[in-house]
Amino acid sequence: MSIGYACIAVGLIGSNQKSCITKNASEEKLYELIEHNLNALEVMIDYNIQNNIKLFRISSDIIPFGSSAVNNIKWWEKFESTFQRIGSKIKNAGMRVSMHPGQYTVLNSPHEDVVSRAILDLDYSARVLDSLELSAKNKIILHIGGIYQNKIEAVQRFCENYKCLDESVKQRLVIENDDKSYNVFDVLEIGKNMMIPVVFDNLHNAVNPYDNVHSEVYWINECKKTWKKNDGIQKIHYSQQDLNKRVGSHSATIKINEFLEFYNQIDHDNIDIMLEVKDKNLSAVKCINCTTTVKKIKVLEKEWSKYKYKILECSQENYLMVRRLLIKKDDYPAIEFYNIIEDALLKEINTENSVNAAQHVWGYFKNIATESEKKVCLKSIELLKKREISTNSIKNILWKMTVKYEEKYLLDSYYFVM
DNA sequence: CACCGTCAAGTCGCA
DNA sequence: TGCGACTTGACGGTG
Prior knowledge:
Elements: E1 2-6, H1 27-50, E2 55-58, H2 75-78, H3 80-92, E3 96-99, H4 112-131, E4 140-143, H5 151-163, H6 167-170, E5 173-176, H7 184-194, E6 198-201, H8 202-207, H9 216-224, E7 234-238, H10 256-265, E8 271-275, H11 281-291, H12 297-314, H13 316-325, H14 334-345, H15 351-362, H16 371-385, H17 391-404, H18 408-411
Parallel strand pairs: 1-2, 1-8, 2-3, 4-5, 5-6, 6-7, 7-8
The structure holds a DNA duplex.
């Protein structure tokens, strides 16, 4: 059983992906971007290994214009050794990765050019995974596509076009229920007929259900039947609704209690769970730490070192609660720990707390900063007290000093990214 | 340096 | 018929 996250690692230096607009997509520029993005991928893979994260989605933007004529670089040749090195790390760690072309990759379109671009997109995704020399258990996830006023014909077109796909794509391709057009029943029909594994997405199912009779567990068990030995263990997508946004929007973080309720209902030892959530790796680590059988408080202490100034900024009370919680060194109060953090993050940030947090962070530098840095910082904190500057401004100033003085404890802090 | 429009894609709902 | 929303972070130009 693995829990993972998609594409981006929040608060991880050197992991950002770069892109450019078509106008600027010269060969030189593209080469530079690919090199950068592969570096960033390796940074994320290393991070995953260090944090025991064994499930990860590689961004489809890893190679800018990877499936377009705009990019003529034979990147799989030019960066062959880089791909092999990263792929080895993935394999040796027992990590499983995937790719997920977005809503604009539509295999069942009635427009020939749209379909051929979709095929190129799938070929590209497979080529990335092939270049990493990973097995067919490392999947490409696709939605069925549009309806075009006739679902039966649209499904037929999907199946016909699927048959035309390259074998390297077919052995990796899995299909997922979406939030508008194809519910889990529709996708299962296709999956069973075409022998394609089905990924169950709980939020899509909540938004676009087949009926209100069958439970999530029922559908997960139905989907399980579509996964064959060569496909690896069943994969599902899990996310929670952002209550302030439109129906189907992913939440900022995974509420741990709600997750555990779901987790405890399913056959979690035989399922890989991909989280779709704004805070990405943060929620993945949270869910892993709350379900692990290895219960070491050191893990929570490490988490606390990253969260603490952010929590101090939100709530002094919660900050003190966590400190009390982590005193007993033979305990492992992971769920309580994350409940206090979730609670703090929901609170409105007031001036007093944001000043307090900034002063704590400034404390790392007050003996090493130059006179001018000291002047700027203290002035900014005074302005913050009067709400004349934003918390982002002060965080930018403090972040620059963190980088300059390589303040290790702060470099990983979520204070700067939340 | 902060801010914000733009990009890039295909479908669908609505005027 | 055509346009805006959906999605996403970063780009890229402006002030």
